[in-house]
Please model this.
Amino acid sequence: MFFRVVFTFFFLICLNAEAQQYLPMLQEDRQWSVDMLFSDPFGGTPPSILTEQITLTEGVEVNGQTYFRVNNNSGATDCLVREENGIVYRLGPNNQEYVMYDFTLEINDTFELPDILMDSYCSIYGWYIFEQTLVVVDTYTQNIAGANRKIIEFEELENGVEYWIEGIGSIRGFDPIGETVDINTTKLVCFTENGQTTFFNDAISCDNTTLTLQDLDIEKFVLHPNPVSQTSQIKLPTSSSGYTLRIYDISGKLLKESYNQKNNYLIQASDYASGTYFYKVFQDNKPLVAKQFLIQ
Model:
């Protein structure tokens, strides 16, 4: 009898510990910064970037459920969300809920994006949610933003691969996939929790609202091949008089600095030990891009 009681007590503790492993996504101390590339479909204005700063306010009760209200640059929105057992729900038309995220998904599971026309998406007004089936091709755990988080990878779609990060959301932003007329792309650029900020998608700033198409030349800063086995080259745009390039190790220690007036920079594998490194490119002391590379 004694051993049965001890075993039962130990089993219940293990179940409770397992249940507490899930990292919730919806908390008031968090902020999502989402870059959105606007492109006028009629060609009237040049493409530009708007960064939406997403926060949450708790305390809205509907049908006996308590929801967070989503806030963006325009203030409080009509987007109401709640979370239960690893699933994030959004309140839709006629106070009907639909599943926004399901972090209990495993390989070969499917997720149905509903066919619902909303007055506003959580991140920005003017979004349409369209019916689509997503298939999970992989799940794994990775340390992101100071915690081990479940990653859900879906099969590649027309507009790229969709990833969900436990406790954070889509790699595209607070919202999963959607489409609209005048927004070409969206991407999560940083996630802030308890005052600690983690950058995503090679971002170096949480707010890029002032960027225009000319600034998008930063996408031309490409290291190839990566990983570096012998010699690799970082191609630099030729539209400027020069760039400062700095190499850091994974701890953030500055290893090398070079001022380049050419349109390329060579990285020799023999100059470094095997491992992970970062390069940052600056122009007039303004950071332009930061990317990771591997030395084999």
